[in-house]
Amino acid sequence: MFIAKDGESLQFYAPFGDGNATLKKVNTWNQTRRYSRSYLDDEGDPRLELDLDMAGGVTVARIKDFFLTCRVSFTAWTAEVVQ
After folding, report:
1. 9-59 residue pLDDT tens
2. Which of the 8 DSSP states describes residue 78?
3. Do 23 and 45 contact (CB within 8 A), yes or no?
4. Which residue range(s) make up the domain with 27?
């Protein structure tokens, strides 16, 4: 997790250095999922990112929901993209 320097966004970031990710799997993920994005970095390793915009305020319940979304997304992404 990263908090932006201005404190207005929170980012979940999951890098993998190995696995069986392909561009086709990444593209399928991006076409069928909302709220997250996946890509292959310059070395071909898969990445998953989710962002929470906190500009203007956010509730504790919304942050908890974001963490849940990150966990659900990460679990599905590792099974569908990385494995």
Report:
1. 999 999 999 789 999 999 999 999 999 999 999 999 999 999 999 999 999
2. I
3. no
4. 2-82
